[in-house]
Write a structure and sequence with these properties.
The chain has 5 helices and 2 strands. It is mostly helical. It has a domain of 80 residues. α1 crosses α2. The longest helix has 20 residues. It is globular. The two termini are 31 Å apart. About 11% of the residues have low confidence.
């Protein structure tokens, strides 16, 4: 099974970045929410989109060896509406659905019995 995550190219201060909400981004978000990534659904959307955008950018910068864009700079350059137009929250929500659907299909060898176990 192949999963294609949505990607969006954006330009910030003359540098092109590719936004994608992959497992590494979800881990960053979870760490930033004290282990409860679902908290992002409970805070105001304008706060959530900036947190998600920042995690996506930080992940991309780390992979590409670029300097991270500070949150203060992002908030100065963009409104929550502009970030929402990029589909940042949608990418996050879609990746959460993919992650949940994928994890439900994974079998747990510790709890499954072999076919001919006699049980």
């Amino acid at each position: 099974m192949s999963i294609q995550l949505a990607k969006k190219k954006v330009e910030i201060d003359g540098v092109e970045y590719t936004l994608c909400c992959n497992m590494s981004v979800l881990e960053r978000l979870q760490d930033g929410q004290d282990g409860d990534i679902g908290h992002l659904y409970q805070i105001p959307i304008y706060q959530a989109v900036f947190l998600i955008l920042k995690a996506m950018l930080d992940d991309y910068c780390e992979d590409e060896g670029l300097i991270e864009v500070p949150m203060k700079r992002l908030k100065k350059l963009f409104s929550p509406a502009q970030i929402a137009e990029w589909g940042v929250f949608r990418m996050f929500a879609d990746s959460m659905m993919v992650t949940t659907a994928s994890s439900e299909k994974v079998s747990d060898p510790d709890t499954e019995l072999p076919e001919n176990s006699g049980n």
